[in-house]
Amino acid sequence: MKISLRFSTAFFALVALLSLGMRASGVDEVIAKARAAVGDESALNTLKSVHYAGNLETTVMDEKGRPKTVTVAIEIIFQKSSQQRIVATSADKIEITALDGYDAWQREQDPKDSARWRMTLLSKEQIERLRANVWENLFFYKGIERIGGQIEDLGTIEIDGKVCRKLCFDHGNGVLFYRYFDQQTGRLLLTETENGVLIRERDDTTVEGIKFPRKIITESKLPTGLTRTITIVFDKITVNEIFADSIFAVPIVGR
Length: 255
Hints:
Blueprint: H1 2-38, H2 41-45, E1 49-61, E2 67-79, E3 83-89, E4 94-100, E5 103-110, E6 113-121, H3 124-138, E7 150-159, E8 162-170, E9 176-182, E10 188-193, E11 198-207, E12 210-221, E13 227-239
Antiparallel strand pairs: 1-2, 1-13, 2-3, 3-4, 4-5, 5-6, 7-8, 8-9, 9-10, 10-11, 11-12, 12-13
């Protein structure tokens, strides 16, 4: 009986390992196809930074179903290994959000009066999400294990009439990105976050061998039950610029 038990344990362990290997291989194939749909390996592997500039439009439906829209200018910079800077400029406020490794901050300033401003250091949870955003925008689905994350294969699902492979990119600490890839082409059709935010990319343009969306549409449910839609349209996308560390670093108050 002991021999039989040992054999059974070893057998099921082997089956589990083989199954894990098959799942890992399947994930690798999905990621390889998804990366190929974006650009060749040389362009993806040598990417150091992405610089977006355009306009962000926020629309919220009121209780009577009437849309209220606000438009601001937006500039976004992602730079390896873990730097990010977002500047949103409207008529009454300039808002800067930046990440520098494990430090992050946000500054709001009156564009008409430079003396009127306030700065906040962001929380650990906010920093972890910003770091995940940098990885998601610069590494194109490959190598999350190197930063302590993992990928889970959640099988197939139909999106917009196409059969998709659903992968969960788990950055740890509850930060999740569910990505839906067209099983035939590898094209990303939809991204969903752990809190139900839906992100769709539209109107591809190619910059130095890499495809980027000119339009990003985000939908989320507000606590009131209303839907908020954010649409970003980029007028300019550049890659591999070199940005000084100082624009990401926490500002020294008084300077």
